[in-house]
Amino acid sequence: MFTPPDLPYPYNALEPHIDEETMKIHHDKHHAAYVQNLNDALKDFPELAGKEAEELIASLEAIPEEIRTKVRNQGGGHVNHSLFWTIMSPAKSLLKAGDLMESLNKTFGGFETFQEKFSSSAIGRFGSGWAWLVKTDSGLEITDTPNQDNPVSSGKTPILGLDVWEHAYYLKYQNSRADYIKAWWNVVDWPQVERLFKS
Asked: Which CATH class name applies to 99-198?
């Protein structure tokens, strides 16, 4: 049985950029619902017991067809949010010179250019979904996915993800996704993203 991870900080820790009420609803209601629905989908399939959620969505073709869509959606929601909480922090951080900065500079031509391209991907994601910075066999890549899809299903490793579902920002930013994205950069935990890049 899967359980939502605890937030690594208080609900109000990311204010003023992400408000306390949004964090409560996002974590305690939305994420919890993905976990409950994933558990319900798996309850009659003991052969899948013991697998990590990442394993399930990385090999969707191996999931029984009758629950494959549920595992994709609910398992993806669990995996996506479990990462999302950990790559944010109330302690404002900057990306320092190192392997990740070097790779961003090489791939995108500079950190500010990377931010612009990532933000554009997040803004341009039609409807609900996510924007990602991922590791691939050939290096770093910015991508986006619909709904709760995760890049691991395509053989890529996410190291930074931004939730652009309306439930992630609507209470504070209403229909201004761009303002939410601009504010979100203030809470990115760059040391954690660097650790994910190196792992």
From this structure: alpha beta
* pLDDT score of 42: 97
pLDDT at site 161: 98
Domain 20-86 class, CATH top level = mainly alpha
Rounded CA-CA distance 28/23 in Å is 8
Match 């969505």 to its residue by tokens: 57
Express each pLDDT in 43-53 by its tens digit.
999 999 889 99
Q: Within 10 A of 180 (CB to CB), how many other CB atoms are there?
A: 24
Q: What is the residue-averaged pLDDT of the chain?
A: 97
Both tokens of 46, joined, read 């003991």
What are the domain boundaries of the chain? 20-86, 99-198
Q: How far apart are CA 184 and CA 92, in angstroms?
A: 11
- Rounded distance, CA 39 to CA 87, Å? 25
Residue 46 makes CB contacts below 8 A (sequence gap 6+) with: none
| pLDDT score for 49 | 87
pLDDT for res 157: 97
Residue whose entry in the numeric block shows the structure tokens 């959606």: 73
